[in-house]
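chain below, 171 aa
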Amino acid sequence: MIGGLRKLRRSERGVATVEFALWLTLFFTISLVAIDIAQFTIQRGRLAEAVSGASLSAFKTRDAVQFQSIPAYVQAMAAAPGQSPINVTVGCNGGTGNCTNSSRVCACLSQTGSFIPTNSCGQSCGSGASANSRSGYYLDIVASYKFNPQFVPASLAEKAVITQKTTVRLQ
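prediction:
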């Protein structure tokens, strides 16, 4: 019996199988993480295209924008199977839900991204604003949702929120 144990200890049969199993596990783990990263990138691209499309549509119809339909447009364009609901906010000149097609109040876009109220549209913006800019009526579209990974544990991706924002000058 002791001779059989010595023979088993010297035997190298099956060593490649153990190495293969270890490398295969590592390969599949990396592959699954790569799939989640690819899904994140694709969904972020879909959301970016939806927000961009909504801003282009608003710019094209800038005199009579249907502000209330922008969230539904973004949600329909960016929808993907099994994703969280998309939260879309629409605002003008730094506000939320305050857009109008008549009696618009214009502002200057500052270098920090905030808005500086002005008396009229088209006037030259002073200090604190982007160089050579003019006041206008700015539409902000912000869309976001929580990314739900397929393979990575949710606890590792709990802060994975996809957000896209655009600002377009309507007037």
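The mean pLDDT is 83. The first strand starts at residue 87 and ends at 92.
thats it, cya
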